[in-house]
Queue: 4 jobs
Job 1
Amino acid sequence: MVKISDERLDEFIELSTEKNIEYKDRQEAYEAANNLVGFFELLHKIDHQEQMRKRRLENEPNGFPIEGSGRNCRLCRQSVQEDMWYDKYGMKCLDCQKAVDEGDVPVEIFDDEDSYITSDELSCKHGIRHQTIKKHIHTGELLPSYIRGNRKLTILIRKENPNLDQILSLK
Protein backbone atom coordinates (compact mmCIF):
# COMPACT_ATOMS: atom_id res chain seq x y z
CA MET A 1 0.00 0.00 0.00
CA VAL A 2 1.22 3.47 -0.94
CA LYS A 3 1.47 6.25 1.65
CA ILE A 4 -0.34 9.34 0.38
CA SER A 5 1.52 12.55 1.17
CA ASP A 6 -0.26 15.60 2.63
CA GLU A 7 0.45 17.48 -0.61
CA ARG A 8 -1.20 14.75 -2.75
CA LEU A 9 -4.12 14.51 -0.33
CA ASP A 10 -4.68 18.27 -0.66
CA GLU A 11 -4.69 17.87 -4.46
CA PHE A 12 -7.17 14.99 -4.18
CA ILE A 13 -9.48 17.04 -1.95
CA GLU A 14 -9.28 20.00 -4.33
CA LEU A 15 -10.08 17.83 -7.37
CA SER A 16 -12.92 16.17 -5.48
CA THR A 17 -14.38 19.55 -4.52
CA GLU A 18 -14.28 20.63 -8.19
CA LYS A 19 -16.38 17.53 -8.95
CA ASN A 20 -18.78 18.36 -6.09
CA ILE A 21 -17.53 15.50 -3.94
CA GLU A 22 -17.21 16.48 -0.29
CA TYR A 23 -15.68 14.56 2.60
CA LYS A 24 -16.58 15.13 6.25
CA ASP A 25 -12.91 15.33 7.25
CA ARG A 26 -9.37 14.68 6.06
CA GLN A 27 -9.48 11.10 7.35
CA GLU A 28 -12.47 10.26 5.11
CA ALA A 29 -10.73 11.94 2.15
CA TYR A 30 -7.55 9.98 2.92
CA GLU A 31 -9.49 6.70 2.94
CA ALA A 32 -11.14 7.59 -0.38
CA ALA A 33 -7.80 8.51 -1.94
CA ASN A 34 -6.23 5.35 -0.56
CA ASN A 35 -9.08 3.25 -2.02
CA LEU A 36 -8.58 4.92 -5.39
CA VAL A 37 -4.84 4.21 -5.33
CA GLY A 38 -5.55 0.59 -4.37
CA PHE A 39 -8.03 0.28 -7.23
CA PHE A 40 -5.48 1.54 -9.75
CA GLU A 41 -2.83 -0.80 -8.34
CA LEU A 42 -5.25 -3.68 -8.92
CA LEU A 43 -5.99 -2.50 -12.48
CA HIS A 44 -2.25 -2.28 -13.14
CA LYS A 45 -1.72 -5.81 -11.82
CA ILE A 46 -4.55 -7.17 -13.97
CA ASP A 47 -3.19 -5.39 -17.06
CA HIS A 48 0.30 -6.75 -16.36
CA GLN A 49 -1.07 -10.31 -16.16
CA GLU A 50 -2.99 -9.84 -19.41
CA GLN A 51 0.10 -8.50 -21.18
CA MET A 52 2.10 -11.51 -19.96
CA ARG A 53 -0.59 -13.86 -21.33
CA LYS A 54 -0.54 -12.06 -24.68
CA ARG A 55 3.24 -12.38 -24.88
CA ARG A 56 2.95 -16.08 -24.07
CA LEU A 57 0.51 -16.44 -26.98
CA GLU A 58 3.33 -15.45 -29.32
CA ASN A 59 5.06 -18.75 -28.43
CA GLU A 60 1.85 -20.77 -28.00
CA PRO A 61 -0.54 -19.38 -30.66
CA ASN A 62 -3.13 -22.14 -30.15
CA GLY A 63 -3.49 -21.16 -26.50
CA PHE A 64 -2.63 -22.63 -23.15
CA PRO A 65 -4.27 -23.64 -19.85
CA ILE A 66 -4.53 -21.14 -17.01
CA GLU A 67 -5.91 -21.30 -13.50
CA GLY A 68 -9.58 -20.42 -13.57
CA SER A 69 -10.42 -20.19 -9.89
CA GLY A 70 -13.06 -17.48 -9.50
CA ARG A 71 -12.86 -16.20 -13.08
CA ASN A 72 -15.69 -16.08 -15.58
CA CYS A 73 -15.74 -17.79 -18.94
CA ARG A 74 -15.94 -15.33 -21.80
CA LEU A 75 -18.40 -17.49 -23.72
CA CYS A 76 -20.85 -18.99 -21.22
CA ARG A 77 -20.17 -16.23 -18.68
CA GLN A 78 -20.23 -18.72 -15.81
CA SER A 79 -17.87 -18.63 -12.84
CA VAL A 80 -15.14 -21.25 -13.17
CA GLN A 81 -13.33 -23.03 -10.36
CA GLU A 82 -11.20 -25.41 -12.43
CA ASP A 83 -8.65 -24.76 -15.17
CA MET A 84 -9.53 -22.60 -18.16
CA TRP A 85 -8.12 -22.15 -21.63
CA TYR A 86 -6.62 -18.88 -22.87
CA ASP A 87 -6.19 -18.07 -26.55
CA LYS A 88 -6.65 -15.12 -28.89
CA TYR A 89 -10.37 -15.09 -28.01
CA GLY A 90 -9.75 -14.78 -24.27
CA MET A 91 -10.44 -17.02 -21.28
CA LYS A 92 -12.91 -19.85 -21.68
CA CYS A 93 -13.94 -22.80 -19.55
CA LEU A 94 -12.81 -26.13 -20.98
CA ASP A 95 -16.36 -27.07 -22.07
CA CYS A 96 -16.67 -23.85 -24.10
CA GLN A 97 -13.18 -24.30 -25.54
CA LYS A 98 -14.17 -27.77 -26.69
CA ALA A 99 -17.31 -26.35 -28.32
CA VAL A 100 -15.19 -23.78 -30.16
CA ASP A 101 -12.62 -26.42 -31.21
CA GLU A 102 -15.35 -28.71 -32.54
CA GLY A 103 -17.07 -25.90 -34.44
CA ASP A 104 -20.26 -26.00 -32.36
CA VAL A 105 -19.88 -22.26 -31.77
CA PRO A 106 -18.60 -19.87 -34.45
CA VAL A 107 -15.59 -17.81 -33.39
CA GLU A 108 -17.14 -14.67 -34.91
CA ILE A 109 -19.24 -14.24 -31.78
CA PHE A 110 -16.11 -13.17 -29.91
CA ASP A 111 -16.05 -9.99 -31.99
CA ASP A 112 -19.23 -8.73 -30.32
CA GLU A 113 -20.40 -9.70 -26.83
CA ASP A 114 -23.99 -8.86 -27.84
CA SER A 115 -23.97 -11.21 -30.85
CA TYR A 116 -25.35 -14.03 -28.70
CA ILE A 117 -27.22 -14.68 -25.49
CA THR A 118 -27.24 -17.74 -23.25
CA SER A 119 -30.41 -19.46 -22.14
CA ASP A 120 -29.48 -18.60 -18.54
CA GLU A 121 -29.34 -14.90 -19.46
CA LEU A 122 -32.71 -15.15 -21.20
CA SER A 123 -34.12 -16.64 -18.03
CA CYS A 124 -32.46 -14.33 -15.49
CA LYS A 125 -32.39 -11.01 -17.33
CA HIS A 126 -35.53 -11.31 -19.40
CA GLY A 127 -37.70 -13.53 -17.21
CA ILE A 128 -38.25 -16.21 -19.85
CA ARG A 129 -38.65 -19.64 -18.33
CA HIS A 130 -36.33 -22.42 -19.52
CA GLN A 131 -39.39 -24.47 -20.53
CA THR A 132 -40.51 -21.62 -22.80
CA ILE A 133 -37.07 -21.42 -24.39
CA LYS A 134 -37.12 -25.19 -24.99
CA LYS A 135 -40.59 -24.86 -26.57
CA HIS A 136 -39.35 -22.21 -29.00
CA ILE A 137 -36.39 -24.44 -29.90
CA HIS A 138 -38.65 -27.48 -30.36
CA THR A 139 -41.00 -25.57 -32.67
CA GLY A 140 -38.05 -24.28 -34.70
CA GLU A 141 -38.58 -20.63 -33.77
CA LEU A 142 -35.11 -20.60 -32.20
CA LEU A 143 -31.96 -22.25 -33.53
CA PRO A 144 -29.66 -23.16 -30.64
CA SER A 145 -25.96 -23.89 -30.34
CA TYR A 146 -25.04 -26.21 -27.49
CA ILE A 147 -22.10 -26.37 -25.16
CA ARG A 148 -21.97 -29.83 -23.72
CA GLY A 149 -20.11 -30.70 -20.56
CA ASN A 150 -20.90 -30.81 -16.87
CA ARG A 151 -24.19 -29.15 -17.75
CA LYS A 152 -25.64 -28.55 -21.17
CA LEU A 153 -25.78 -24.84 -21.97
CA THR A 154 -27.77 -23.33 -24.80
CA ILE A 155 -26.46 -20.34 -26.70
CA LEU A 156 -28.61 -18.39 -29.14
CA ILE A 157 -26.63 -16.55 -31.79
CA ARG A 158 -28.55 -13.44 -32.82
CA LYS A 159 -27.54 -13.68 -36.49
CA GLU A 160 -28.99 -17.21 -36.63
CA ASN A 161 -32.11 -16.16 -34.67
CA PRO A 162 -33.49 -13.00 -36.30
CA ASN A 163 -36.81 -13.37 -34.46
CA LEU A 164 -35.17 -13.45 -31.01
CA ASP A 165 -36.11 -9.85 -30.24
CA GLN A 166 -39.72 -10.59 -31.21
CA ILE A 167 -39.77 -13.58 -28.83
CA LEU A 168 -38.27 -11.41 -26.08
CA SER A 169 -41.05 -8.87 -26.52
CA LEU A 170 -43.73 -11.57 -26.09
CA LYS A 171 -42.63 -12.65 -22.63
Job 2
Amino acid sequence: MSEAQSEASRVLGGRVRDARVALALSQEETAHLAGMNVSNYGKIERGMGNPSLHTIVRIAAVLGVDPGGFTRGLRGDQLPERRAVYTAADYVRERERERRERRS
Protein backbone atom coordinates (compact mmCIF):
# COMPACT_ATOMS: atom_id res chain seq x y z
CA MET A 1 0.00 0.00 0.00
CA SER A 2 1.31 3.44 -0.89
CA GLU A 3 2.03 6.11 1.67
CA ALA A 4 -0.09 9.23 2.09
CA GLN A 5 0.98 12.31 0.10
CA SER A 6 1.58 14.14 3.36
CA GLU A 7 0.64 14.19 7.01
CA ALA A 8 -1.98 16.83 6.16
CA SER A 9 -3.53 14.56 3.51
CA ARG A 10 -3.54 11.64 5.95
CA VAL A 11 -5.26 13.68 8.66
CA LEU A 12 -7.87 15.11 6.28
CA GLY A 13 -8.58 11.65 4.88
CA GLY A 14 -9.02 10.19 8.35
CA ARG A 15 -11.48 12.92 9.28
CA VAL A 16 -13.48 12.33 6.09
CA ARG A 17 -13.51 8.58 6.77
CA ASP A 18 -14.61 9.08 10.40
CA ALA A 19 -17.52 11.30 9.30
CA ARG A 20 -18.60 8.75 6.69
CA VAL A 21 -18.35 5.78 9.06
CA ALA A 22 -20.36 7.67 11.71
CA LEU A 23 -23.23 7.74 9.18
CA ALA A 24 -22.76 4.05 8.27
CA LEU A 25 -22.20 4.95 4.62
CA SER A 26 -19.94 3.06 2.24
CA GLN A 27 -17.29 4.81 0.20
CA GLU A 28 -19.34 4.01 -2.90
CA GLU A 29 -22.50 5.57 -1.46
CA THR A 30 -20.66 8.69 -0.31
CA ALA A 31 -18.85 9.10 -3.63
CA HIS A 32 -22.13 8.71 -5.52
CA LEU A 33 -23.87 11.31 -3.34
CA ALA A 34 -20.94 13.71 -3.85
CA GLY A 35 -20.92 13.14 -7.61
CA MET A 36 -17.45 11.62 -7.52
CA ASN A 37 -15.70 8.58 -8.84
CA VAL A 38 -15.40 6.06 -5.98
CA SER A 39 -11.71 5.48 -6.74
CA ASN A 40 -10.95 9.20 -6.38
CA TYR A 41 -13.00 9.36 -3.18
CA GLY A 42 -11.07 6.40 -1.76
CA LYS A 43 -7.78 8.13 -2.53
CA ILE A 44 -8.89 11.10 -0.41
CA GLU A 45 -9.70 8.86 2.56
CA ARG A 46 -6.31 7.11 2.24
CA GLY A 47 -4.48 10.45 2.07
CA MET A 48 -3.42 9.77 -1.51
CA GLY A 49 -5.62 12.45 -3.08
CA ASN A 50 -5.27 16.21 -3.05
CA PRO A 51 -8.90 17.36 -3.19
CA SER A 52 -9.84 20.83 -4.35
CA LEU A 53 -11.75 23.19 -2.11
CA HIS A 54 -14.94 22.43 -4.04
CA THR A 55 -14.49 18.71 -3.48
CA ILE A 56 -13.90 19.17 0.25
CA VAL A 57 -17.03 21.33 0.55
CA ARG A 58 -19.08 18.87 -1.53
CA ILE A 59 -18.03 15.91 0.64
CA ALA A 60 -18.72 17.87 3.82
CA ALA A 61 -22.20 18.81 2.56
CA VAL A 62 -22.99 15.17 1.78
CA LEU A 63 -21.81 14.12 5.25
CA GLY A 64 -23.57 17.03 6.96
CA VAL A 65 -20.45 18.45 8.59
CA ASP A 66 -18.63 21.78 8.56
CA PRO A 67 -15.89 21.59 5.91
CA GLY A 68 -13.60 23.55 8.23
CA GLY A 69 -13.55 20.56 10.55
CA PHE A 70 -11.70 18.57 7.91
CA THR A 71 -8.81 21.05 7.83
CA ARG A 72 -8.86 22.48 11.37
CA GLY A 73 -5.42 22.56 12.94
CA LEU A 74 -3.48 21.54 9.83
CA ARG A 75 -0.13 23.31 9.53
CA GLY A 76 2.34 24.06 6.77
CA ASP A 77 4.90 21.68 8.27
CA GLN A 78 2.45 18.82 7.57
CA LEU A 79 2.70 19.41 3.81
CA PRO A 80 5.22 17.69 1.55
CA GLU A 81 8.74 19.11 1.84
CA ARG A 82 9.80 21.79 -0.59
CA ARG A 83 13.31 23.01 -1.23
CA ALA A 84 12.69 26.33 0.49
CA VAL A 85 9.59 27.33 2.37
CA TYR A 86 9.28 30.96 3.33
CA THR A 87 6.60 32.57 5.41
CA ALA A 88 5.10 35.94 4.62
CA ALA A 89 7.01 37.29 7.62
CA ASP A 90 10.29 36.01 6.09
CA TYR A 91 9.44 37.72 2.81
CA VAL A 92 8.56 41.06 4.45
CA ARG A 93 11.71 40.96 6.60
CA GLU A 94 13.91 40.34 3.52
CA ARG A 95 12.11 43.02 1.51
CA GLU A 96 12.71 45.57 4.29
CA ARG A 97 16.37 44.54 4.56
CA GLU A 98 16.83 45.09 0.82
CA ARG A 99 15.14 48.51 1.02
CA ARG A 100 17.45 49.58 3.84
CA GLU A 101 20.49 48.44 1.85
CA ARG A 102 19.39 50.45 -1.21
CA ARG A 103 19.00 53.60 0.90
CA SER A 104 22.53 53.22 2.34
Job 3
Amino acid sequence: MLVSTSQRYRLRNPASGREIVIEADGAGSYLDRESGTRMEVVGRLLPLAPSTSRLPWAVENLRFCPWCKQLAQKDLNDCPTCGRRMGPLDDPPARS
Protein backbone atom coordinates (compact mmCIF):
# COMPACT_ATOMS: atom_id res chain seq x y z
CA MET A 1 0.00 0.00 0.00
CA LEU A 2 1.40 3.39 -1.04
CA VAL A 3 1.38 5.93 1.79
CA SER A 4 2.07 9.62 1.22
CA THR A 5 4.40 11.04 3.87
CA SER A 6 4.35 14.62 2.56
CA GLN A 7 1.96 17.09 4.14
CA ARG A 8 0.02 19.38 1.83
CA TYR A 9 -0.57 23.02 2.80
CA ARG A 10 -2.79 25.79 1.48
CA LEU A 11 -0.79 28.99 0.95
CA ARG A 12 -2.18 32.48 0.26
CA ASN A 13 -0.67 35.61 -1.22
CA PRO A 14 -1.87 38.32 1.23
CA ALA A 15 -1.73 41.06 -1.43
CA SER A 16 -3.73 39.35 -4.18
CA GLY A 17 -5.61 36.64 -2.26
CA ARG A 18 -4.32 34.03 -4.73
CA GLU A 19 -4.11 30.56 -3.14
CA ILE A 20 -2.16 27.42 -4.00
CA VAL A 21 -1.89 23.92 -2.54
CA ILE A 22 1.59 22.40 -2.34
CA GLU A 23 3.51 19.73 -0.47
CA ALA A 24 5.67 21.63 1.98
CA ASP A 25 7.24 21.46 5.41
CA GLY A 26 5.17 24.39 6.72
CA ALA A 27 8.18 26.13 8.24
CA GLY A 28 9.86 27.35 5.05
CA SER A 29 9.43 30.61 3.18
CA TYR A 30 7.48 30.35 -0.08
CA LEU A 31 7.23 33.00 -2.77
CA ASP A 32 4.42 33.54 -5.25
CA ARG A 33 5.76 32.80 -8.74
CA GLU A 34 3.68 35.56 -10.33
CA SER A 35 4.41 38.47 -8.00
CA GLY A 36 7.38 37.38 -5.87
CA THR A 37 5.36 38.14 -2.72
CA ARG A 38 5.87 35.93 0.34
CA MET A 39 3.01 33.41 0.70
CA GLU A 40 1.36 32.79 4.09
CA VAL A 41 0.50 29.30 5.31
CA VAL A 42 -3.30 29.29 5.71
CA GLY A 43 -3.67 25.69 6.86
CA ARG A 44 -2.89 22.01 6.44
CA LEU A 45 -5.09 19.94 4.17
CA LEU A 46 -6.89 16.92 5.56
CA PRO A 47 -6.08 14.05 5.53
CA LEU A 48 -2.91 14.71 7.48
CA ALA A 49 0.26 12.91 6.42
CA PRO A 50 0.95 10.01 6.43
CA SER A 51 -2.18 8.92 4.55
CA THR A 52 -3.13 6.40 1.90
CA SER A 53 -5.40 8.98 0.22
CA ARG A 54 -4.36 11.90 -1.99
CA LEU A 55 -7.84 13.46 -2.08
CA PRO A 56 -8.48 16.47 0.14
CA TRP A 57 -11.42 16.17 2.50
CA ALA A 58 -14.21 17.89 0.60
CA VAL A 59 -17.82 16.87 0.13
CA GLU A 60 -17.10 15.94 -3.50
CA ASN A 61 -14.32 13.52 -2.47
CA LEU A 62 -15.99 11.71 0.45
CA ARG A 63 -18.37 8.79 0.88
CA PHE A 64 -19.83 6.95 3.86
CA CYS A 65 -18.44 3.57 4.90
CA PRO A 66 -21.30 1.03 4.66
CA TRP A 67 -20.08 -0.68 7.86
CA CYS A 68 -19.33 2.06 10.39
CA LYS A 69 -21.11 5.00 8.67
CA GLN A 70 -18.03 7.24 9.00
CA LEU A 71 -16.71 9.45 6.18
CA ALA A 72 -13.87 8.12 4.04
CA GLN A 73 -12.18 9.38 0.88
CA LYS A 74 -13.54 7.98 -2.39
CA ASP A 75 -10.12 6.76 -3.54
CA LEU A 76 -9.70 4.35 -0.59
CA ASN A 77 -10.66 0.68 -0.75
CA ASP A 78 -10.53 0.12 3.02
CA CYS A 79 -12.23 2.35 5.59
CA PRO A 80 -9.64 4.29 7.66
CA THR A 81 -11.96 4.13 10.71
CA CYS A 82 -13.00 0.47 10.91
CA GLY A 83 -10.53 -1.08 8.45
CA ARG A 84 -13.19 -3.01 6.54
CA ARG A 85 -13.35 -3.21 2.75
CA MET A 86 -15.75 -0.73 1.16
CA GLY A 87 -17.63 -1.72 -1.99
CA PRO A 88 -17.18 -0.12 -5.38
CA LEU A 89 -18.60 3.32 -6.06
CA ASP A 90 -21.85 3.62 -7.97
CA ASP A 91 -21.49 4.99 -11.48
CA PRO A 92 -22.79 8.57 -11.76
CA PRO A 93 -26.04 8.94 -13.73
CA ALA A 94 -25.61 9.66 -17.42
CA ARG A 95 -26.26 13.22 -18.53
CA SER A 96 -28.74 13.75 -21.28
Job 4
Amino acid sequence: MEPSKADQKRERQKAKDLKKSRWWQNLIQDAICYYCQVKIPKDSVTMDHIIPISRGGKSTKGNLVPCCPSCNLEKRSLTASEWLMKQAQESR
Protein backbone atom coordinates (compact mmCIF):
# COMPACT_ATOMS: atom_id res chain seq x y z
CA MET A 1 0.00 0.00 0.00
CA GLU A 2 1.35 3.39 -1.00
CA PRO A 3 1.81 5.83 1.90
CA SER A 4 -0.51 8.83 2.06
CA LYS A 5 0.69 12.28 1.01
CA ALA A 6 0.63 13.33 4.69
CA ASP A 7 2.82 10.35 5.66
CA GLN A 8 5.26 11.15 2.85
CA LYS A 9 5.41 14.80 3.90
CA ARG A 10 6.09 13.79 7.51
CA GLU A 11 8.93 11.45 6.46
CA ARG A 12 10.49 14.13 4.25
CA GLN A 13 10.48 16.54 7.19
CA LYS A 14 12.14 13.90 9.40
CA ALA A 15 14.85 13.51 6.73
CA LYS A 16 15.41 17.29 6.66
CA ASP A 17 15.73 17.30 10.44
CA LEU A 18 18.20 14.39 10.38
CA LYS A 19 20.28 16.23 7.75
CA LYS A 20 20.94 18.90 10.39
CA SER A 21 21.90 16.35 13.05
CA ARG A 22 25.39 15.60 14.31
CA TRP A 23 24.88 11.99 13.18
CA TRP A 24 24.52 13.06 9.51
CA GLN A 25 27.28 15.67 9.72
CA ASN A 26 29.68 13.03 11.06
CA LEU A 27 28.58 10.54 8.40
CA ILE A 28 29.34 12.89 5.51
CA GLN A 29 32.78 14.02 6.73
CA ASP A 30 34.49 11.37 4.60
CA ALA A 31 31.47 10.30 2.59
CA ILE A 32 31.57 7.49 0.08
CA CYS A 33 28.54 6.88 -2.13
CA TYR A 34 26.57 3.91 -0.84
CA TYR A 35 26.00 2.70 -4.41
CA CYS A 36 29.08 3.41 -6.55
CA GLN A 37 31.64 3.60 -3.70
CA VAL A 38 33.14 6.88 -5.01
CA LYS A 39 34.33 9.48 -2.49
CA ILE A 40 31.96 12.45 -2.47
CA PRO A 41 32.92 16.03 -1.57
CA LYS A 42 31.00 17.08 1.55
CA ASP A 43 29.15 19.84 -0.31
CA SER A 44 27.91 17.37 -2.97
CA VAL A 45 26.59 14.59 -0.73
CA THR A 46 22.90 13.81 -1.08
CA MET A 47 20.78 11.83 1.36
CA ASP A 48 19.10 8.76 -0.08
CA HIS A 49 16.42 6.48 1.33
CA ILE A 50 17.38 2.84 0.67
CA ILE A 51 13.65 2.10 0.59
CA PRO A 52 12.12 5.26 -0.91
CA ILE A 53 9.46 7.19 1.00
CA SER A 54 7.14 6.68 -1.98
CA ARG A 55 7.46 2.92 -1.44
CA GLY A 56 6.82 3.05 2.31
CA GLY A 57 10.38 3.73 3.49
CA LYS A 58 10.98 5.70 6.66
CA SER A 59 13.42 8.48 7.48
CA THR A 60 15.45 6.48 9.99
CA LYS A 61 19.19 6.16 10.41
CA GLY A 62 19.01 2.59 9.14
CA ASN A 63 17.29 3.64 5.90
CA LEU A 64 19.34 6.76 5.08
CA VAL A 65 22.69 6.68 3.30
CA PRO A 66 25.09 9.17 1.72
CA CYS A 67 24.86 9.13 -2.03
CA CYS A 68 26.43 10.97 -4.96
CA PRO A 69 24.04 13.14 -6.97
CA SER A 70 24.27 10.99 -10.12
CA CYS A 71 23.41 7.73 -8.33
CA ASN A 72 20.59 9.43 -6.44
CA LEU A 73 19.14 10.81 -9.68
CA GLU A 74 19.39 7.46 -11.47
CA LYS A 75 17.96 5.43 -8.58
CA ARG A 76 14.79 7.50 -8.28
CA SER A 77 12.03 5.48 -6.59
CA LEU A 78 13.69 2.07 -6.89
CA THR A 79 14.79 0.24 -3.78
CA ALA A 80 18.54 -0.18 -3.40
CA SER A 81 18.39 -3.85 -4.38
CA GLU A 82 16.25 -3.12 -7.47
CA TRP A 83 18.64 -0.38 -8.59
CA LEU A 84 21.76 -2.49 -8.01
CA MET A 85 20.21 -5.39 -9.94
CA LYS A 86 19.35 -3.00 -12.79
CA GLN A 87 22.95 -1.73 -12.82
CA ALA A 88 24.28 -5.29 -12.93
CA GLN A 89 22.02 -6.19 -15.85
CA GLU A 90 23.04 -3.06 -17.79
CA SER A 91 26.74 -3.84 -17.36
CA ARG A 92 26.44 -7.24 -19.05
